[in-house]
Design brief:
The protein is of the alpha/beta class. It is about 35% helix and about 10% strand.
């Protein structure tokens, strides 16, 4: 069952009153851990061996409804019971971030700042902006957009909270003003650019993106780009744009490309065997790119979401055990998704041997207070055949800084 079907099922059951309880929903306990938990050995060891100023969470979504005048926007379908899947997803995202629907902007930010206190003060969360979808004619398409988080909002929060946040811009390459918007973001301190091609409707292999790639190289901005299937964000519905092989084009232009989630979900056509090549796992196509020596130093993988229950554990096993990739992997939480309790199954990870019982018990307690710390600790504790994620993966500043 994929994440879309899973959340739809949960939505139907919760609306009917069949599901209640802390195992499904984030209890939103105070972000500060109680003293007994904070002093637990596993919690105290979470940051050992890491340089605090290098710990940048490279995948923190900045969400809001615009109720504070922030410019954020969500598609009205997300608030309509006529669209039960989208409605259910918004309920889960609000619960995951402990945000109030009637005060979403401020309550989302307040909770995020509280969660930051669980991390070393020298570390940073990288806030993601998110552009509208655009069509082939370069026309803005709110009807094909799930939400929008303007660059100006993410940049402002970086200015107001420089000790807490860095930020990643989002600029659709089909916009008439794409290069101008990219340059403005760079001047405002953006550390990278975020794309979600299946939802936003851009083809990474389109020649019309070449000028954008040239500008990224000139400005020294990496491209954090989703690859693989996208189930959490509705939009243009172009799953074919999530094919990892399409990313050869920016790589061949010299763009530093960070593949979100290591393309760990779904299948795409093997374009190396023709336009209608056999469908193979997106992760295997990502691995093909990672093993291409031409792209060493340019291609990286973001490990956000790889622990979610809708990912195959064979992917997690490969990431843990492929030591040669570890200096090209970077950590991200994909917040607020770690706060969507059903998405991460500690029981499944324990049964598959990635986690021991003691660690799982501690993590379950941490999750109820600080989902981002929970995500961080979980990845630090995972093991497969005696191997763990290298500490360098959690020192992400080397890629974005």
């Amino acid at each position: 069952m994929n994440r879309r079907d899973f959340l739809a099922l949960l939505g139907g059951l919760s609306v009917s009153g069949c599901l209640r309880g802390p195992m499904l929903f984030n209890p939103c306990l105070p972000a500060r851990l109680p003293e007994s938990l904070a002093n637990n050995e596993l919690v105290r060891q979470a940051f050992e061996g890491l340089r605090p100023d290098q710990i940048w969470d490279g995948h923190v979504h900045l969400l809001g409804t615009g109720d504070s005048g922030s410019g954020a926007w969500i598609n009205p379908q997300l608030s309509s019971l006529r669209h039960p899947l989208q409605y259910t997803q918004l309920r889960f995202y609000l619960n995951a971030s402990c945000a109030a629907e009637d005060n979403a902007d401020e309550s989302f930010l307040a909770r995020l700042l509280a969660l930051r206190q669980g991390f070393p003060p020298q570390s940073r969360f990288m806030l993601l902006a998110f552009d509208y979808s655009y069509d082939e004619s370069g026309r803005r398409r709110p009807d094909l957009s799930a939400f929008r988080t303007p660059n100006e909002l993410a940049a402002r929060l970086h200015r107001e909270y420089p000790g807490d946040f860095e930020w990643i811009a989002s600029v659709h390459p089909y916009r008439e003003d794409a290069i101008e918007a990219l340059e403005q973001a760079s001047k405002a301190g953006a550390r990278a650019v975020k794309w979600l091609p299946p939802a936003m409707g851009m083809d990474p292999d389109a020649p019309r993106c070449d000028a954008f790639y040239t500008a990224l190289v000139r400005l020294g901005l990496p491209l954090l780009v989703h690859a693989g299937d996208e189930k959490a964000v509705h939009g243009s519905g172009r799953q074919d744009y999530g094919n990892p092989l399409l990313l050869r084009r920016p790589l061949e232009h010299g763009v530093k490309v960070i593949v979100a989630h290591c393309a760990s979900l779904g299948q795409s056509s093997d374009l190396d065997k023709g336009a209608r090549g056999p469908r193979v796992s997106n992760f295997s196509l990502f691995a093909r790119l990672m093993n291409d020596r031409r792209f060493e130093g340019l291609l990286f993988g973001d490990i956000s979401a790889v622990i979610q229950r809708n990912r195959k554990t064979s992917v997690l096993k490969a990431l843990l055990e492929t030591d040669a990739w570890h200096d090209r992997l970077v950590n991200g939480s994909d917040y607020p998704l770690p706060g969507v309790v059903p998405l991460i199954s500690l029981r499944k990870l324990r049964k598959r041997g990635f986690l021991d019982e003691t660690a799982a018990q501690v993590l379950e307690q941490v999750r109820q207070h600080n989902p981002i710390l929970f995500d961080f600790m979980l990845k630090r504790l995972l093991r497969s055949d005696g191997k763990r994620f290298s500490p360098t993966i959690f020192e992400s500043r080397r890629v974005y800084g």
